[in-house]
Automatic annotation (TrEMBL):
GO terms for biological process: DNA modification; methylation. GO terms for molecular function: nucleic acid binding; site-specific DNA-methyltransferase (adenine-specific) activity. Transmembrane segments: none annotated. It comes from Methanococcus maripaludis. It is an enzyme of class 2 (transferase). This is site-specific DNA-methyltransferase (adenine-specific).
Amino acid sequence: MQESLVNEVQEYTNKYLEKKSKKDRKKIGQFFTPAAVADFMASLSGDYENFEELNILDCGSGTGILATALVDKFKTHKNLKRLHIDLYEVDSDVLPILTKSMEYIKHKLENSPIKFTYKIIHGNFVTLNVDNWNSESVGCYDLVISNPPYKKISKSCEEAVAMNSIVHGQPNIYFLFMAMALKLLKENGEFIFINPRSFTSGLYFKKFRTWFLENVNISRIHLFVSRKNVFGNDQVLQETIILKAVKSRLKEDMMCISESTDSDLSKNIFQIYMPYNTVITKNENKFILLPTNEEDVKIMNLMSNWKYNLIKLGYKLKTGPVVDFRSLEYLKNEPSDETVPLLWLHNFNDGLIRFPVTKDGKPQYILNNSESKKLLLENKDYLLLKRFTSKEEKRRLQAAIYSSKEFNYPQIGFENHLNYIVKESGNMELNELFGLYALFNCDILDKYYRIVNGSTQVNATEVNSMPLPEKELIVRIGDLILKENDLSVDKCNDIVNNIFNI
Ligand SMILES: C[S@@+](CC[C@H](N)C(=O)[O-])C[C@H]1O[C@@H](n2cnc3c(N)ncnc32)[C@H](O)[C@@H]1O
């Protein structure tokens, strides 16, 4: 029996898609895995040739294409006698298709030595398993495969409350699925998920990431080149990864990271084995670093020798405190004795700050009175970093020097779309400021940031823990760039690459 079961389920899925609107599917985080991706995920499962029984979980199963892909792989296993699948699905509209898929498999396996059974559990995968989450006992599944729903939920939702030990701020249901599925696995059971990349960095995922990484041994992470089209016509704008891991507190020495284009999974355009300890950062944030080419790997190796970061060096990156729509009463278009400058992203100008610049009617001044004072900063030297960049922009890290000398005011306002790096005690020397500027404006740090974080936002947690060289080197870089009197990215790259022999 060599025909592909997955292709048949793909047909059922296509028919269902004709009937259910995108809008309705979006509400429940429903988008379906294409057959080629499902096959690829199933191909990552381990060697079960000697198993007589397999107990599989597919949570958020939709039409059941992922479980079907596993059956396709296991249906020729000589020793397999029993194959059972539990499928959780909340959407009653898709249940008839799910049943049809499972009945189709049952029919196809009728004359095989494998006794195939399945159970469709119509309900909420997370809340139905709260008791298991709170129990000490280990799970019952050999393997879990899932494309979980992707949806932000409120912190007070039943799911979030039930799993609050791994929730910080507003959670996304996808990582609650990951945690619950892991909990339900047997020790050394296999975990194969396709999900957004966002949990690999960021403060909001830290509690989950820490718990998850303690309990899994990741063997493979696969990235898709573009954030579009992994899911066919359903454009999922999140960067998506496939993760294969085993439930175990022991870690392998190495982990495989690969990348392919969206459409052709058979061709990895990049594949590398990296030490586990290099991929998972050693600091308390436990970021998962995802290089996508040889140059990224070189950068990771270089920066793994840098022992400092902004915090250790006495600096800190913070976010501009002025949120315009919350501060309307203080914002002014014209200066007066009571106002100080308010800087926005559009004041960035080739590494420096140009002021005033009128753009889209955004006020360039903010009142400096007893009420607004809490939003203002002391007028000292800062390195400004854009907090948001567009997907089309080449660089994530874009820096500009704020020199206190240029602004004859006691206070200054920074709008919330920009970040600033401040020296926690005292003011920065000129060569420190320019040294940090050159580093944050060079390609090495920009690429490192992308290895850590796939989004277009520049977050404080990531930047504050980025490895940096010792202060003496930063100052030396600053002296060199001051001497050159050229703040271009090319010049920053020349100087930094030269110092580090790249
Ligand atoms: C991203 S889709 C993936 C469907 C299918 N596994 C696939 O790969 O094509 C996620 C599925 O989870 C279902 N779902 C959403 N929330 C759920 C919940 N709390 N419990 C169980 N299923 C849920 C949705 O209805 C949807 O069918």
